[in-house]
Write the structure tokens for this entry.
Amino acid sequence: MDFLSRKARSIAPYTAGEQLRDRTYVKLNTNENPYPPSPRVKQALLDMDADGLRRYPRPDAGLLRAAIAEKEGVSPENVFCGNGSDEVLALSFPAFFDADGAGACFADLTYSFYEVFAAFFGIPAKVVPLREDFTFDLAAMRAQDCQGYYIANPNAPTGIGIGRAEMEQFVRSVPEKIVILDEAYMDFFGESFVPLVKEYPNVLVVRTFSKSYALAGIRCGYAVGNASLIAGLFRMKDCFNSYPVDAVAEAVCAAAVGDRDYYAAATEKVIAERGRLTVALREMGFTVPESRANFLFAGRGRLGGKAIYEKLRSEGVLVRFWDRPLLRDFVRITVGSHEENDILLEKLNKILS
Ligand SMILES: *Cc1c(COP(=O)(O)O)cnc(C)c1O
């Protein structure tokens, strides 16, 4: 007897990066931050009232939304929080797209969760190829018949970014469609659309605590946008999980959002290392598009991504590889600490010689 639904039997779920624990790896495969979170995070954990955990948390994450609103220069009614930005993205599909509508448009090489969410919610996917140099073809996207767009900016796994002015032009050209900007890596680029959301009621910006805030273990992300879009996300949340942001996550993330100086410094270090790694990899003969994120998309012709990935893994360095057309010549390498990056370069030199 098979009790699974047709959907449960047939859907292809998202595959997250490996979290291997069989040995100590230099872990450069899931774009985590090489630096710890702000010391204020530790303090917030120490200050937690364990007895208070018998209570449910705030259903609207009000304390955290106020902290985010202050940081982003918007009102709390413009902010929605979820259990990771993945959950915020998931809820955005039923909030803004109809199963019998024209569908959600996104690039062929982008965050692969969009495709999974579209399938899960039964929303048509309109997939537009990137250009040959891996940049977005915004004109081709604009020409699609769809209800709206998902654009990861900077994009994953390529690291390529779209500047604010170009994005504004795109957004302005599709005023009847919703544009969901996934800014998971935006702090490493500095061209966020958040300062413009007030002018564009069709834009929802989604951000995460997992990457630049070094809090992947906490599971929290948020959206910033027009109050009516945010209200739509709340309606979907309350059909699914009343309390997606737990009390610990709320306190920790609120503390993190307040420590701008600490995170600005950590982000600067990652950006500097990204530059150093890009130069070093290109000198070794790798093709590396200019990255605006905390990872590099690197290929070395006929060697192939799989060989690089497997050889590095046997040397104790984990990177990400996808056995998919257009991606299989490349690996995605998270920018680590200076020491981790030195190990990566040393192992790559060994593999190539
Ligand atoms: C990491 C990532 C996310 C999801 O992050 P959460 O950990 O769920 O907050 C969303 N979008 C992109 C493009 C990512 O790389």
Remarks:
- The pocket of pyridoxal-5'-phosphate is lined by residues 31, 84-86, 111, 152, 156, 182, 184, 208, 210-211, 216, 221 (CB under 6 Å).
- The chain has a mean pLDDT of 96.
- Residues 260-283 form the longest helix (24 residues).
- The radius of gyration is 20 Å.
